[in-house]
Every structure is written in structure tokens, then in C-alpha cells.
Amino acid sequence: MEKIFKKNICCIGAGYVGGPTMSVIALNCPDYRIDVVDVNKERINSWNNIDLSKLPIFEPGLDKVVENCRGKNLFFSTNIKESISNADIVFISVNTPTKLKGIGANYASDLSWIEASARQIAKYSRNHTVVVEKSTLPVKTAETIKTILNSSKEDNTNKKTIKGNKTFSIISNPEFLAEGSAISDLQNPDRVLIGGEDTESINLIADIYKHWVDSKRIITTNLWSSELSKLVANAFLAQRISSINSLSELCEETGADIEEVSKAIGMDSRIGSSFLKTSVGFGGSCFKKDILNLVYIARSQGLEKVANYWEQILVINAHQRDRFSKKIIDCIEKNNLEPKVLLLGLAFKKDTNDTRESAAIYVANNLLNSKIEIGVFDPKVNINQIQFDLSDLNENYDKTLVKFIQDPVSNISNYNLIAIMTEWDEFKEFDWQYIYSKIKKPAFIFDGRNILNIEKIKKLGFNYTGLGRK
Ligand code: UDX
Ligand code: ADP
């Protein structure tokens, strides 16, 4: 006999947010049925692959969670219509990239996928459906969703949107997980934020999280506060990184050491120590997009100074990538070296196969524009993805200048220069003594993550250039 579930949840979008979030909900709520649907058949097939190493997303611990729940109360499919029809709650976890054309181009988010999802919900849902915004969205997106769901009249007494005999409530429940630590972030969230207009629907969503999250950590707000809080949280985090990165340049000029400065200021409990690690620049699908959104919203309200303030975060981020690239280019020219660099890491941070907005791709592009050959290695990013990312930045990039390296250590004798782009643990653990014995001399390391021990590396004979330290 088929199991009867207490609630049916449908999640539209089986990506970096939808996949892990729904897996953890399924793990903690065995009494709920979760259907994750996507238009991308190939992605769904990967989610259903018996070989758990072939899941479309690499996230530590995700395979175990999927193994536990898949086929029991967690299902991945392309049955969008059926899953929406059966759902009490529909999460929207689709992509919201920055718009490339039209009003707000290069700043505002492209809501096509959100709108398409809302149209699907309007069409296939039955009875009352609670629609939850999970993707990061510009403030007031709920209004757009409502307009689509809403036929004409709104029942102002209980704030439920009415379309024929169907009713909808909109909830904003932004996701704060970080890639690479998604499962532990989902299992132990600092807070769960639920924004909405009717208490019944807010409680319905809170009930999901109460299965494993302490009620004190579940906070409720109005819709717009919830939407804005997500953008602001990301903007604040990115702001800290750009602040420390801007100071890394100042350290290089003054002889201060950015790692020492970070530690010294981070021990002030009012400042706190997280997100003060200097790097070649932040990446990921959220920070840039969310700041652009914030800037766009401020500017569209006529708040030019506010918009300019937040936009500076992106200016510094691009500057950090460019000045790191320039150090490498200058080194090749000054030392008259063969124009070849081995890039270690393409992912935007360790423990993920995601390369969206990765600083490594921008640096690779800068090097290619200077006719420098790049050898690229990342433990989790595949060749197709790298080719896609490079052509996304420059359609006509010189493919003959890109070599895909399977084993960086055994290929090292072809290079004078190594640039560390992602802080993968395995790079720290490389046998640097052996590498020094094989690499061409003079040997240079550009450490875009400050992960190596300077003293040890210099002692081996490498010329070392980190960020914000000599
Ligand atoms: C971020 C937010 O942390 C998360 O709450 C939100 O839901 C999505 O956006 P994510 O992009 O997955 O998560 O990764 P995060 O750990 O925030 O790192 C973003 C970028 O900043 C990475 O490129 C990382 O290497 C860089 N970073 C982070 C630094 O350069 N220095 C730091 O101190 C921290
Ligand atoms: P995120 O990082 O926000 O999770 P991703 O790009 O990883 O973003 O995932 C979004 C997913 O949403 C993609 O797999 C995409 O195919 C899917 N998607 C987008 N629009 C729809 C739609 N209307 N119906 C079903 N799936 C959709």
C-alpha cells in the first residue's frame, strides 16, 4: 500500500539550492513527501543515478542524505504538472541570473524562470497552495508572483490570492546555505527566515523546520523584510571580503601583513573573525548578483549615493582579480619566462564543483588575453565546464592556449609558474619539496588564497608572492 504523507512538497528547480535543501528537509521530515522537479532531464537523471558519485552537485555529505531518502520520501523527476497538482507547498528554487538586456540590464535579476514557475503553479495547482520563494530574489518579487497567480481579485480578509477556485499564499523563505558546507548549514542553520502575510501559511512553513530546528532560531517577518534581508546578508558578507582585499593592497605597500591585521581585528568581538580571509576575489552565484540587485533597487529609488556605496564592493573585487593577474604577467615579462602558468583550482571556493563567477576564470581570461598559455587543474571541475566558462567570458578565446591537466604534480616540469586559485586542502598537502625538485627554475608561486606556509616555501627555493604579505 502506498504510504500516506502528512504534507506534499514540490520544489521547482533541482540545482545547488533546491537539491540539497530538499534532501535535508526529506531527511528530517519522513512524514512529508518531497518531489524535486526540473525541466533539465539530464540533471534529473543524475539525481537518480545509482552511483552516488554522479550526483549533479558535489557537496560533502549530500550523497549519504540522498541515499537515505531517495525513493522513500524524496523523488526527483520531470513530472512538473503532476507534482504541482499534488502539492500543498511549492518551493521555487530556480535560477535568477543578472539580466543581460532590457530594463535594468547588467544589474537587475532576470525573473523569466521565476515567472515561468509561477505560471506553471497557476495552471497545475489545485485547491490552496502555499508558494515559497527559495531562490534569492529582488525585493518585491513576491508581487510579481502574486500578479501571475492572481486572476483578478484578492481576498483582503485573509490575504490569500484567489484564482478561480484555487487560492495561494506567498511566503519568502530565503536560503542562507553556503556551497561546500550546504548540508551542515542546512542541518544547523543560524536562523530560518520566514516572511509572509498570513499566519497560517507562515506556521505551515515553520512546521517543516521545527522537525529539526529550535523554534528560537525560526524568525518571521513581513514579506519584503525577508526578501531584503537575504540581499543584505550577502552584501554584508561580500563587503567584508572586499574590505579586507582592499587592505591587502595597502599591506603590500606598507609592509604590514594582512593575515596579522585580519587576526588582530577579528578578535574584537564587535567585528568577529569570519569572512576576513583575503583572496584573489570572491565568486559564487550570489554575491555579485545580489549586490547588483541592491544597487539597482537603490538607484531606482533615486538613492544614488547608497547605490554607489554598495557598488564599490564589486569595483574592489574586480580590482583584486586584475592586480593578481598583473603580478603574474609582470613576472613573466620581467624574468623573460616562457609564457605558461599552471592554475591550481577553478572552483569559486573549495569543496564545490561550482565555478560561477569564480575569480579563477577571470584571471584565466586575463592571462589568455596576454597570450599566456594556461594549464588548468581542479579536483572537481570537469573540462566541459571550464570550456563553457572561458567561452562565456570571451567567445573567441584562444583554445590552443588552454591545456587540461589531469595530474598537476607529474606535469610540473613544463612550468616556471604556479598560481593557486582555490583553497583546496589537497594543494596545501602537496609535496612541495618534490614539486620544487621538478619545476623549471627560477620557480614562482602566486598564492591567491594565502594557503601556503611562506617560510617553508621560500626555504625550498620558490619565489613566493601572496596577497597582502611579503
Ligand atoms: C554565499 C553566502 O555565504 C550564503 O549565505 C548564501 O546563501 C549564498 O552566498 P557561497 O557563495 O556558497 O555562499 O559561498 P561563501 O562561503 O559565502 O563564499 C563566497 C566567496 O567568497 C568565495 O569565492 C570564497 O572563496 C570567498 N571568500 C569567503 C573569501 O574570499 N574570503 C572569506 O573570508 C570568505
Ligand atoms: P541555484 O544555484 O539557485 O539552485 P541552479 O542554476 O543550480 O540555481 O538551479 C536552478 C534549476 O532550476 C536548474 O536546474 C533549471 O533547469 C531549473 N529550472 C529553471 N526554470 C524552471 C522551470 N520553469 N521549471 C522547472 N525547472 C526549472
List the helices and strands and how they pair.
Blueprint: E1 7-12, H1 18-28, E2 32-37, H2 41-47, H3 62-69, E3 74-77, H4 80-86, E4 89-92, H5 112-124, E5 128-133, H6 141-149, E6 154-155, E7 160-163, E8 166-172, H7 182-187, E9 192-196, H8 199-210, E10 218-221, H9 223-254, H10 258-266, H11 287-300, H12 304-334, E11 340-344, H13 359-369, E12 373-377, H14 383-393, E13 402-404, E14 417-420, H15 425-428, H16 432-438, E15 444-447, H17 454-460, E16 463-465
Parallel strand pairs: 1-2, 1-4, 2-3, 4-5, 5-8, 9-10, 11-12, 11-14, 12-13, 14-15, 15-16
Antiparallel strand pairs: 6-7, 7-8, 8-9
Helix pairs in contact: 1-3, 5-6, 9-11, 9-12, 11-12, 12-13, 13-14
This protein binds uridine-5'-diphosphate-xylopyranose and adenosine-5'-diphosphate.
The site of uridine-5'-diphosphate-xylopyranose (UDX) has 19 residues, from helix 9.
Overall description:
Mean pLDDT is 94; it is low at 152-156. The protein has helices at residues 18-28, 41-47, 62-69, 80-86, 112-124, 141-149, 182-187, 199-210, 223-254, 258-266, 287-300, 304-334, 359-369, 383-393, 425-428, 432-438, 454-460; strands at 7-12, 32-37, 74-77, 89-92, 128-133, 154-155, 160-163, 166-172, 192-196, 218-221, 340-344, 373-377, 402-404, 417-420, 444-447, 463-465. Strands 1, 2, 3, 4, 5, 6, 7, 8, 9 and 10 form a ten-stranded mixed sheet that branches. A six-stranded parallel sheet has the order 13-12-11-14-15-16, with helices on both faces. It is of the alpha/beta class and 470 residues long. It starts with 6 loop residues before the first strand and ends in a 5-residue tail after the last strand. It is globular and about 75 Å long. It folds into two domains: 7-221, Rossmann fold (3-Layer(aba) Sandwich); 316-465, NAD(P)-binding Rossmann-like Domain (Rossmann fold, 3-Layer(aba) Sandwich). Helices cover 42% and strands 15% of the residues. Helix 1 packs across helix 3, helix 9 crosses helix 11 (287-300) and helix 13 crosses helix 14. It has 17 helices and 16 strands. Strand 1, helix 1 and strand 2 (32-37) form a beta-alpha-beta unit. Bound molecules: uridine-5'-diphosphate-xylopyranose and adenosine-5'-diphosphate. Uridine-5'-diphosphate-xylopyranose binds next to helix 9.
